[in-house]
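Re: weekly structure request thread

Next one in the queue (386 aa):
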Amino acid sequence: MDYITNTMGNLLQQTAFLNLTIGNLAMIGVACFFLFLAIKKGFEPLLLVPIAFGMLLVNIYPEIMAKPYTDAMGIEHAGGLLHYFFILDEWSILPSLIFMGVGAMTDFGPLIANPKSFLLGAAAQFGIYTAYFIAIFMGFNDKAAAAISIIGGADGPTSIFLAGKLGQTGLMGPIAVAAYSYMALVPIIQPPIMKLFTTEEERKIKMEQLRPVSKLERILFPIIVTIVVCLILPTTAPLVGMLMLGNLFKESGVVGQLAETASNAMMYIVVILLGTSVGATTSAEAFLNLDTIKIVLLGLIAFAVGTAAGVLFGKLMCKATGGKVNPLIGSAGVSAVPMAARVSQKVGAEADPTNFLLMHAMGPNVAGVIGTAVAAGTFMAIFGVK
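Done, posted below.
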């Protein structure tokens, strides 16, 4: 009888029930909510499903993120599974590979056909610098403020990359979750801001068809951008370099296997590793605190200001061109590719069902990806980080 009692007691001790806290239960609830948004509502499921599941796992079994250690007997113990995934985030490997996949999947033609789109992509980065100064005012140090502010670009990989480079791994979980959450919520957050700063007439503006882009232009573009940007800001090479390499795979036409691998198999493997490891940084102890609330709020401010700045600059371009630019495409200057461009198309089609803005919006959208990487490189240069 004692044997049975002891065995049952040991089994009970090994369950997670006795170790769950109110915070763990709250985070499990958040994870389930994210899964609902991803599966039922279709909000960026490729991102939210692995993130939410990583969140679920770490709040049930914290040891899955445990670091390796040596006990008092000198015996070495391995770390948890997701700890090793997370190391790839800290070393900037996974964010850089994500950029390669994005480059291999993305058509840079609209940006090449309309170089003025670079200005809209640059304008949308205003939210990043606004959030940077607000974060300092709220009590974060300068490096933490920089890492948090990149959320305004709605670019999860860049947020993770910069947080790692600036030594802000303690904030990486909340920063990454906020960035990916706002990427998923682009269709909800952006339309009210876009409609607030534009008139019905402006939203109905139809833009001229973009000129055809030659194969030579498509091949030269990633090479030239890499040379120019990396000469000015060498610290952007891991992101901009991989983005352009992926695009060169796509456009060169001679390495179809590499383009296919980068945009499919490799991309999805990296998303699984990055998503689950980022989600696993959101244990109740690390996530449920005042700093996390501040980060989520600052991310929303940065994203909203970036969207508004892009639209307002679009209005300026509309005036300067005599009404040839629909200001809605300015909102796509954040780097949530291609979701932000689709939102520009959706809002424009609501004003006029015959309006087709998607390809025009892809120009600022791609420019936003480059712009956010440049913003990250600028912060790294300011702080002397290589």
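The first helix runs from residue 2 to 14. The two ends are 64 Å apart (CA to CA).
Next request, please.
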